[in-house]
């Protein structure tokens, strides 16, 4: 029997979903938040760990377990399958108006932690009517099984669950529902081919910045013995986020035009077109050795192995420009549907002491392209530093968070003003604006008074890496003066010249041996330095053309080149975060944050819509970023010897 590529039989198939029974609520209203764990076998499920329930009060909690056995279609044919379902319900009451979030629940199943997605609610000042379901109403078996009125819902839930298992990693979910059917699904040009690559695209006409989900599948009628990914799509003209890139393929069965195939996901990406016009999803190319199934006297068997190279079809996407009519002044390029939340992350505010002001954008779309709107800061607040964090989730949601370090320069009352944030919603074809609430702060008097000069930098100086403490009050000792005075030779432990000569000779021997080692270890440094200098000269020609997208792309390549050289041979093909993990801790601590920031800047220059770039593409900002990158990359190249020493 020829072994097939399948999911390990020992691995339980698990799905964790969340839902709420209502979305429109006001102060005093109750909702039921449900966490459902589905599995195809007995697993150990610990009670979920609830997050901080901001603006909600937990009234009660209950759970229930059910097992359903039914005949299902599997890759091996019809077979009995068990579905185990454990539901955790939480009754919550809204306590205060405004926008509040229910954070991520953590569920530990068979020792592995599964994290749900946070949910954001707008709570009205008054009750909206209606009531949360009772435990009896929530129980799908309360009305009888299987004749009860809720049996259809159970049946649909089971089919959805097993559909996920059969499509294993081939469909993503958003709030418990499958994504829409693709608008375009390519078919094989020749049905007799040993295998082909299918492209699925959920939309073929979108706005600038609107998400397009594309997936590539391999279909084969034979036994696939090897698979080599020859070429990944370039996807020029798109901002790309990876939904799935499977390290090992897993097959399911599918009928195409009456022909049975074995199907496996290769990759799935979320693409965001960066400009209007026509954007092309180019080829995904693989090479594989296939044994076809042949008909013999003894029945079906495997024939001779052949090696083929196949490419997917190119797909054109029509990209519509964002409308200029009705575009708000506060629009900076956000396309999708987002919420904005602004909070002060500090228990108390003291004059001349920094505190954190956090602004978070979250929703459906590419939040990474969002810029912080202009905020009219009061004169008594100093913006000391700003850090960003962003992430794209596989279900199409994303967030971008700004942590702004502020320093109040005097005590008393101060207000962080409200600001507006605008976005374009492709679903409605209209712009929408969100507005934060002003935040009033009471700044306490600093008991130590104003800091000494240099302890906290004033505007324009930037963060101080070694702040000086204020001088203590009261009498002080005179400064210590270091003086040299000649001593008689007899007072020295090694006063004789021959001893000094021996000491110097020993030191020179050690240094010479170390230099000999470092000369050999420095070969990689020399090679990387030569390549870097050659590539930088080539970049200067690109720089002269003043095309910010080409400049950003070339600098990204230079960062990958240097990080790959430091991390090792495989470094240049890895993600930035993984390459930084392979860099020695001393370099990572010193340069890791700066590298990540610079790479994010050049990713925006390369892929983001023009509206999202703000001042990044101005000549002054670009010159500063380029000059800083040249200095940073040159320093990293010169420090490669430290990497070799760490390995030695």
Architecture of the largest domain, according to CATH?
Answer: Sandwich
At the fold tier of CATH, the topology name of the largest domain is Immunoglobulin-like
What is the share of helical residues? Answer: 10-25%
**Biggest beta sheet summary:** 6 strands, antiparallel
Write structural notes for this entry.
- The chain contains eight helices and 32 strands.
- The protein has 648 residues and is of the alpha+beta class.
- It has four domains: 14-168, Immunoglobulin-like (Sandwich); 184-320, Immunoglobulin-like; 333-444, Immunoglobulin-like; 505-647.
- Helix 6 (585-607) packs antiparallel against helix 7 (619-638).
- The model is unreliable at 1-10, 131-162, 164-178, 457-497 and 510-521 (pLDDT under 50).
Task: Supply database-style keywords.
single chain, about 650 residues, alpha+beta, Immunoglobulin-like, six-stranded mixed β-sheet, globular
């Amino acid at each position: 029997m020829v072994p097939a590529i399948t999911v390990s039989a020992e691995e339980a198939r698990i799905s964790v979903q969340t839902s709420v029974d209502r979305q429109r609520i006001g102060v005093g209203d109750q909702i039921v938040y449900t966490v459902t764990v589905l599995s195809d076998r007995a697993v150990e499920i610990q009670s979920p760990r609830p997050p901080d329930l901001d603006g909600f009060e937990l009234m009660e909690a209950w759970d229930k377990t059910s097992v359903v056995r039914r005949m299902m279609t599997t890759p091996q044919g019809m077979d009995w399958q068990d579905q185990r379902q454990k539901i955790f319900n939480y009754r919550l009451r809204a306590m205060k108006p405004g926008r509040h979030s229910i954070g991520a629940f953590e569920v530990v199943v068979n020792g592995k932690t599964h994290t749900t997605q946070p949910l954001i609610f707008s709570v009205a000042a008054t009750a909206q009517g209606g009531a949360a379901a009772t435990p009896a109403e929530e129980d799908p078996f309360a009305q009888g099984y299987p004749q009860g009125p809720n049996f259809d819902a159970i049946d649909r839930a089971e089919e959805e669950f097993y559909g996920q298992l059969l499509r294993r990693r081939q469909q993503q979910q958003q709030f418990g529902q499958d994504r829409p059917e693709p608008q375009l699904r390519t078919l094989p040009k020749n049905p007799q081919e040993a295998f082909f690559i299918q492209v699925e695209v959920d939309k073929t006409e979108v706005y600038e910045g609107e998400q397009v989900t594309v997936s590539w599948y391999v279909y084969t009628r034979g036994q696939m013995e090897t698979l080599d990914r020859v070429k990944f799509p370039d996807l020029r003209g798109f901002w790309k986020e990876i939904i799935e890139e499977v390290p090992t393929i897993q097959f399911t069965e599918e009928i195409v035009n009456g022909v049975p195939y074995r199907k496996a996901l290769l990759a799935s990406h979320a693409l965001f077109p960066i400009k209007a016009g026509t954007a092309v999803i180019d080829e995904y190319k693989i090479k594989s050795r296939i044994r076809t199934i042949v008909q013999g006297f003894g029945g079906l068997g495997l024939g001779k192995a052949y090696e083929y190279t196949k490419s997917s079809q190119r797909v054109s996407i029509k990209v519509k420009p964002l409308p200029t009519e009705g575009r708000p002044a506060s629009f900076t390029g956000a396309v999708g549907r987002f919420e904005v939340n602004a909070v002060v992350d500090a228990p108390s505010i003291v004059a001349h002491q920094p505190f954190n002001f956090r602004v978070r954008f979250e929703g459906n779309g590419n939040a990474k392209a969002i810029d912080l709107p202009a905020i009219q800061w009061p004169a008594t607040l100093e913006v000391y530093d700003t850090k960003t964090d962003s992430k794209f989730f596989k279900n199409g949601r994303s967030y971008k968070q700004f942590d702004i370090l502020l320093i109040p320069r005097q005590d008393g009352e101060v207000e962080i003003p409200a600001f507006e944030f605008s976005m374009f919603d492709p679903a409605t074809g209209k712009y929408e604006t969100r507005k934060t609430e002003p935040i009033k702060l009471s700044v306490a008097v600093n008991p130590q008074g104003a800091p000494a000069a240099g302890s906290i930098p004033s505007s324009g100086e930037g963060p101080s890496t070694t702040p000086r403490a204020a001088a203590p009050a009261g009498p002080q000792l005179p400064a210590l003066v270091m003086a040299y005075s000649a001593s008689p030779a007899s007072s020295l432990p090694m006063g004789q010249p021959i001893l000094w000569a021996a000491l110097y000779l020993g030191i020179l021997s050690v240094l010479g041996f170390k230099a000999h080692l470092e000369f050999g270890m420095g070969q990689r440094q020399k090679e990387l330095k030569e390549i870097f200098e050659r590539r930088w000269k080539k970049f200067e020609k690109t720089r002269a053309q003043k095309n910010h997208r080409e400049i950003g792309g070339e600098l990204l390549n230079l960062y990958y080149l240097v990080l790959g050289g430091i991390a090792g041979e495989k470094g240049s093909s890895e993600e930035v975060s993984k390459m930084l993990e392979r860099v020695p801790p001393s370099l990572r601590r010193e340069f890791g944050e700066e590298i990540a920031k610079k790479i994010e800047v050049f990713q925006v220059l390369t892929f983001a819509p023009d509206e999202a770039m703000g001042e990044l593409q101005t000549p002054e900002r670009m010159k500063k970023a380029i000059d800083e990158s040249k200095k940073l990359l040159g320093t990293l190249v010169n420090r490669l010897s430290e990497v070799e020493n760490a390995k030695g």
